[in-house]
Every structure is written in structure tokens, then in C-alpha cells.
Amino acid sequence: MGTIIWGNIYRFIEIIWRRRYYLGISIILAVLIASLISMVTPKRYGSHTSILVQESSLLNPFLEDLSVSFNLEDRMVALRVLVHSRHILFTVAEQNDLLDKNSDYRERDLIVKKLSGAITLKLSGADLVIITLTWDVPSQMKSILNSVSQLFIDSLMAPSRASIISSEKFLLTQLELRRDKLVAAEEKMAAFRRQHLGVLPELFIQNNQTLFSIYSAIRDKDIELSGAYGQLNSLKLKLAQTNPVIGIVEEQIVSAEAKLSLLKASYTRKHSKVQTVELLLNNLKNEQNKLLSKNVEFTDAQLNQLWNLASVPDSGDGESKAPSLLLSQLENLQTSQSRVIQLENEIAMLHQQSKRLTSNVAMEADVAKELSALERDLIVNTKLYHDLLNRHEMAKVTGELGRHEEPEKIKVIDMPFTPGYPTNLSLSLYIVMGLIGGIGCGISLTVAAELLDDTLWHIRNFNAFDNINILARLPSIDYEKDSENENNG
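Above: the chain sequence. Below: its structure as C-alpha cells.
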């Protein structure tokens, strides 16, 4: 088994040696081609920058609820597409003078395509972004990477900045609108309460109690008025019984009786003077009886006459007792009348108050319903206003926190740099690769030539022919060299 293996190796080496020109030429050509490629290939340079993006929850866990998260892992694909977008690459090209105003569309598209292929964004871990640039002009690479990294940071921060600014503007607009609505609701509520001051629901119990008190007072005043009327009628009756007219009639009766007695002493009953006095006396007595049996109602004129009569100055004799008594009765009568008038006025006023309170109590349900609607509207507007005010203040605090944390949240770890050597493969490596390729190509050509050559180089080739016996093996003879030796010898 070992002999066969070594035999095959020997035969392979023999074939390689016999076809050594194929192998040598292939190696030389491959090395030359590799060297030429190394010299012809444009020099490419590589530079990179790394940006550390830290979430607010890591910087300050206590203010996590006030900060805006970047969500870098979820947004990385979108950020990569955004950095490779045309307007971003146009901006990079214009900032680094890769384009001028006279550049045509073809030049613009070519430079955009070149930049897009040269820029690579990679997320390393959860918060480290590496931006790599492969370019052919090393002096431009630092500025290009600076532009790309700044635009990447702006694109990364843009949503949080824009959302905070737009939120502040929107909340401020809504806050002013809600403030106007709240002021209008408060004014409407105040006007309604002023208009229905006595019918407010909180006064309902008080109004009912007051109305009950008024009804009780009316009942008491009615009873008191009835007593005042009785007292007034009693005083009028007494005044009527002590009527001065009756006193005058009685005096005339006494005078008539005295005159009649004198006339009877001088004349008979049938005398005309006696009969005249008797007739007068009978008339006076009838008038007296009529006055005593009748409840006289005094008019204002009669009362004034009585006041004038009662106000006659005392003469010092016993006849002045009657006017004094009359004056006392008139004073009591006037006091009683004043009391009656006072009670009537009080009762009328209480009836007016009861009507007003009854109307207020009847209106209480409608007023309470409308007031409840106004209170709901006021509560809703107040709640919305305070909610928007809190949100606006939170948005302002979030914006201030974002601006405060921005230098700490995004840090450039590796600054862009100008590379000092290209990233192309070295000449020696190209030569080694050409050598390896030449060896492989030479072996392939050697194997192909051996397979296509029908020359019989080995005994096994003769065994392929039947009935042929090998008598002897002769070494290779160079006839030309032998003939030259013979001629020289």
C-alpha cells in the first residue's frame, strides 16, 4: 500500500517536472499580473468615528419620567436609511465642496452614489454607533465624517426636539383657548348666581324655614289683628256711649223738664205752651233712646269735632271732667287704630314676602338644574385647564432637561481622523496571492496537458494494449548531443 502511494507521488512529481514550463510561466505571469493590479488599483483610505448614545434612564434614573427616550435599537434602520438619503448626502457634499453650483444632475447622482457606498453605519451593542467612511482622498475624510456624524446626531435628536417644541406650542395654544373658555364659564356662573341670588339651591332649606316662619308670623298677626279690631270696636262703643250729643240731649231734656214744671205751675196741660214743651220733651227723649240703642260709627269729621271739643281748656269747675274723659277715650281710640293699621301693613308685607319666597321655592328645581349644568361645564373647563397647564409645565421641564442632558447623552468617543495609509492590500501580499494563484493555474495547466497528451510515458500505458510484451527498457538518448560529442572527439 505504501509502495503504491509513493509510486503515485513519484509519478506526480515526474509529471510536474516534465511540464515544468507550464508551471513556471503561470507563476511568473500571475505574479506580474498581481503586481500590476496592486500598482493600478486606486488607493482607498478608511476612517471612522464612534458615537455613544446613552438613555436618560441610565444617566439619571430619578428623572426618567421627564425625559424622552431615543429608542436607538428600534430606530437604527430608519436612521441608516435617513443618513443614506439624497438630501442628507447632498448636504454633506455641499458642506465639503464636493459639489458646486454648476454641477449637473449626473455629477450630483454620481457623488451621492459614491458617498452612499462609502458611508457605513453599524450599531455595536445597544448604545454605540460606529460610522465608517472609505474614501480615495484622505484630506477630505475628516470633514466628511464630521458632517455625517453631526447630521446623524441632528437626525437622532430631531424627533425629541421637534416633539417637545411642537408639544409646547400646541399645549400653549390649547391652554390659552381653555383659559378663555374657563373665564367665560366663570363669568356665566357668576352672572347666573347674581341673577338668581335668592333662588340658589344652598338657600333652599333657609327659604323653606323662612317661609314657615312667615306663615307662623301671619297666623300670629292675624290673631293679634282680630284682637286689635275687637279692642277698636269696644273703644268706639264706649265712645259712642259717652257721646257728647247724648249729653247735650240730656241737658236739653233736663232744661225742658224744668221749663215744663214752671209752665204747669202757671198753665194747664191743655195750654199751648205746655203742650209745646211736652212735645219737645218727648222728641228729646226719643232722640236719647235712639242714640243709646244705636252703635254710632264716627266719621273723620265727627272725630275731629270730638277732638276739638275735648281740647277745650279746663275751666276749673266740675264740668271739665267730661272733656278730659273724652280726650282719654279719643287717645285710646287713636292708639288702637294705629295698632290696627300697623298690623294690617305687617300682614300685607308678610304676604308679599311669602309670595316671593313661594315663587323662589317653586323656581328652585329649574334653577338647580341649570346651575348644575353650569357647574359641570365649569368643572370640566377647570379640570382641562389645570391638566393642560400641568402638561405644558411638564413639556417645558422635559425640554429644559433634554437641553441640559444633551451633552451627556450623546458623546463622540472616537473623533474623525485623517488616515495616514491606505486600506489597500500591500504589494508583497499581492505577490504572495499571485504566486499562489500562479501555482494553482500552473498545476491545472499541467494536469490538463498531461491528460490531453497521448504520448506513452509509463509502462502502465503499454498495458493498455493487448498482446504486446515489453522486452527491455532503454534510457532516454539525446542523439544530437551524442553526434556533437563524436564530431568534437
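Residues 2-41+431-488 form one domain.
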